[in-house]
Design a protein that fits this description.
By secondary structure, the protein is α/β, with parallel strands linked by helices. The chain has seven helices and ten strands.
Length: 198
């Protein structure tokens, strides 16, 4: 399977490690329909490539992902890629991949981005990271699949309910103590730490 060219992602291959970088910092890496399709394409390429064993998903800017693109959402034009409607946010919150995916999140991890964090197999956060599910403050519920499917498997129910029902952010150390991430490091060490883990 040949890798496609991407507009909203940067990709690199390093000795069996596939690095996917969300690269829409001007929109806080919010996932619009085109970026959603690109993420699905990148993960499908990773899955099909026998030379790749581990994926790392990271970001440019100081927001890993703000989740769904609200402009498209409000215009009712946001949609999953054709044929991949059941994969969930970013192509990973409702689909289980056979090979491990490590998230190396720099900065804020919000909404759908936090659902992707839940869906990852391991996670490294920058030491200034904040994780939140702010949907409840707009009378919404995280609908990308990650929260209802995975949060109770990842962290204690009371912690999960605090995140989902208050919308308040938690810092990187709290995310680790609650079981949402493996460790946190300074921003400049983030990718190297994830590469070493991979």
């Amino acid at each position: 399977m040949k890798e496609k060219e991407f507009h909203y992602l940067l990709t690199e291959e390093h000795e069996g490690i596939y690095v996917i970088t969300l690269n829409r910092p001007e929109a806080r890496n919010a996932i619009n329909s085109a970026m959603w399709e690109e993420l699905c394409d990148a993960l499908a390429y990773f899955d099909a490539n026998e030379g790749l064993a581990v994926a790392i998903m990271t970001n440019t800017g100081k927001v890993f992902s703000a989740g769904a693109d609200l402009k498209e959402y409000n215009e009712h034009t946001l949609h999953p890629p054709f044929g991949r409607e059941t994969w969930g946010t970013g192509g990973m919150t409702r689909r289980f991949w056979a090979k491990p995916i490590i998230i190396a999140a720099n900065g804020k991890v919000v909404g759908g981005g936090a659902e992707m964090l839940l869906a990852s197999d391991m996670a490294i956060l920058s030491d200034d990271a904040l994780v939140s599910f702010p949907e409840v403050k707009n009378a919404l519920f995280p609908g990308g699949g990650g929260a209802p499917l995975r949060i109770g498997r990842s962290i204690h129910l009371k912690h999960a309910l605090e995140l989902l029902l208050t919308g308040n952010p938690i810092d990187a150390q709290t995310a680790i103590s609650w079981g949402l991430a493996n460790r946190c490091v300074p921003e400049e060490e983030l990718l190297d730490t994830a590469m070493n883990l991979a």
